[in-house]
Amino acid sequence: MSSGKAGASSWKSDLMLALLAMLVALAVNAGTGFRELTDAGGDNDNLLRLVEVRDMLGGQGWFDLHQYRMGLEGGFVMHWSRLVDTPIATIILVVQALTGSTALAEDVAQIAWPSLLFFLTVFFTTRAARSVAGESAVLPSVVVGAAAYHFIGIYSTGALDHHNVQLMLTMASLCLLLEAPVRRTAALLSGLCAALTLAVGMETVPYVATIGVSVALLFVVDRSGESRIARDFGLGFAGVSALVFIATIPFSAWGQAQCDAFSTVQFVVAALAGTGLAAIASIDAASRSWQRRLAALGLLAAAIAAVVVSLFPQCLAAPYANLDPRLKELWLDHIDEAQSLLTLLAHEPAHVAARYATPLVAIVLMAISFSRGNWRRQESLVAALLVVAFVVSAWQVRGSTFSIGFAVIPLSAWIAKWRQRVEVSSSRGVVLRMAAAWLVSVNAVWTGAAAATSVVLESKNTVAAGSETDNRCYRMASFAPLGHMPDTTVLAISNLGAPVLAYSGHRVFAGPYHRNIAGNLLALDAFLGSADDARKIVADHHVGLVALCRGSAESELLAEKAPQGFLAGLMHGSVPDWLEPVAETKGNPIELYRVRQGA
C-alpha cells in the first residue's frame, strides 16, 4: 500500500538506514584492504577518470576535454563530462589541503566518492519502495538494494566512472516522481535529476525518455492530478539542460552537434520537450480534455522528431555505426558490457542468471499484479523503467545495471506482502514462502548459483585461470618499473592504455575509447603488421618503449589474428634487433622493450 505522507515524514529514518548500508559496504571493502586502490581489475574508465581529474587539477581548462597523452600527437577529445570530474577534484583538494598529501587525497576520493553515491542510491531506492509499497518495503529495499548495488560493482572502491552517478540520478528522478503527488517541489527536482543524468552521459537516454513519456501519458490520463507535475518536471528538465549547456559547452562549440555527449543536439531536444510539456500543461485550451492533451503532445513529439531528422540526422544512426570494421572486430565485439543477451546465452549461460534473473522475476511479479487489476500510478512508473532497462540489457549487458536497480522496488514490495502475511499467520508454510521471496530477490544467490554452474563446466575453469593471468597485467605494481623510466611514448595494447597513463607519466596510442580511432588503428597496424612495419611506426611517432603483457586476453586475440605479426613474434620470444629487453622486467606481468638509439 502506498503511503506518501508516511514517506515524506520518515526521510530521516531512511537516511539512517541508507547510511548504515553504506557503512556495512565500506566495512566489507575495508576488510579487503581497499584492494581496488592498487588493482583496478582492468577497468580503464575508472583509471582514465582519475587521469582526467589530475589533468584538470594540473591546470587543464574547464572546457578542454582533450586527453593529450593518448592517441596520435595532440591527443583526442573525450566525450565525458566535467560534472563528474568536479566533485572528485573537490574531495582531492580538500583532503590535500588538510593532509598535504596528494596520494592520500586521491585514495580518500576513490573511497569516499563511490561510497557517497552508494548511500544516495540506496536512499532513493528506499524512498521509491516506500512510495510503492509502504513501510513494510523499507527494510527489504535496504537489504536487497544494498546487496544488488554491491553486486554490480559500480560502487566499489575506485569506481570513478560515471555509471554510478547515472544510476543514482535516474533512481532519484524516479523516486521524486513517485513522491510528486504529495511533495510540491518533487517534480521540479525530478526534472533536474533527469537532465543531469543525461548531461553526464548518453547511456541514460532510454531511461530519461521513458520518464518523460511516462509523465506526459499520466498527464493525458489525469489532468487534475498530473498537470502541476508535468509542468514542473518540464520546467526543471528544460531549465537545468540550459544551465548545463552554458556551463559545460564553450561558446565556440554551441553550434557543433555531438551525438555521444551533451551538446546542442541534446540541449535543443531537452528545451523543446521540457518547455513544450510545461506549456501544454499550463494552457487550458490545450489541456481541457484528454483528446486535446493527447493531440497537443502528439504535435510536440512530431515537432521534436522533425527537428532531429532535419538538423541532426547523423544522431539517428546506431552508436557505433561509423566505427572502423577492424576496431569492431578486435575491440567492440570483445567488450563484456557490450555483449547481448543472445551472446551470453551462447557463450556464458551462467552469467545470464547473475545479470537477468532478478529483473525477470520483478517483471513477472508486476505483470501478475497488473493482470489482477492493480494498475496504479506508482507501479506504472516503475514498470515502464524496468521493462525498458530489461530491453536495453538484452541488447547490451550494461543495461542490466539499471534493470537490477529498478527490480529492487517490486521485489521489495513482494517481500513486504509476505512480511505482512507472517504478521497475521506465522505458519511454517507462510514463513518458508517469505524466506523464499527473500532468497529469490537477492542477486548474490543467483550469482552463487551461476558460479557453481561455471565450476561444473570444464571450459570455465580454463577461463578462470586465464582471467587471473589477465588481471595481473593491470595491477599498479606491474607498472612500477615503467613509472620510474623517463617519460616517452609507449606502444601497448588498448587495455594497457589507461593504466599506463594513471601509473606513469608516459603517453600511449591506444585506449578502449570510440573517439580514439586513429590511435587505436595505429597500434593495431604496429602489432598486426610485420616487425618492419612496427619499426617504421615506432620511428615515425617517436616511440621509446614497447610494453607486452603475455597473459592478456587482448594480446592473445591479436596474436591469433596475425600469427606472423610483430606482437605474436614478441609473445613467442622473437625480439627484433631494434628492440632491447629491459632486464628488470623479464618475467614480470608487464615486460618492457626499449627502442635502441638510432634504430
Helices and strands, with pairings:
Blueprint: H1 4-9, H2 11-31, H3 44-57, E1 66-67, E2 76-77, H4 82-99, H5 102-133, H6 138-152, H7 163-179, H8 186-200, H9 205-221, H10 223-248, H11 264-282, H12 284-287, H13 290-311, H14 325-330, H15 341-347, H16 349-371, H17 377-395, H18 400-424, H19 428-441, H20 443-456, H21 458-472, H22 480-483, E3 489-491, H23 497-503, E4 507-508, H24 517-528, H25 531-540, E5 543-548, H26 553-561, H27 566-571, E6 579-581, E7 591-595
Parallel strand pairs: 3-4, 3-5
Antiparallel strand pairs: 1-2, 5-7, 6-7
Shape: globular
What is the overall pLDDT average?
91
Q: Main sheet: which strands, in order across?
A: 4-3-5-7-6
Measured distance between first and last alpha carbons = 76 Å
The largest pleated sheet is described as: 5 strands, mixed
Spans of at least 5 consecutive residues with low confidence: 1-8, 458-467
Number of strands: 7
How large is the share of residues in beta strands?
under 5%
Please identify the structural class as seen in this structure: mainly alpha
- Based on CA atoms alone, the radius of gyration comes out at 26 Å
In DSSP terms (H or I, runs of 4 or more residues), the helix count works out at 27
- Overall helicity: 55-70%
Brief overview:
With 599 residues, this protein is mainly alpha-helical. It has 27 helices and seven strands.
Notes on the structure:
This is GtrA family protein. Among the domains are: 335-464, no CATH class; 468-595, Rossmann fold, CATH 3.40.50. It has 27 helices and seven strands. The protein is mainly alpha-helical and 599 residues long. The protein is globular. It is 66% helix and 4% strand. The strands form two sheets. It has a five-stranded mixed sheet with strand order 4-3-5-7-6, with helices on both faces. A two-stranded antiparallel sheet has the order 1-2. The N and C termini lie far apart (76 Å).
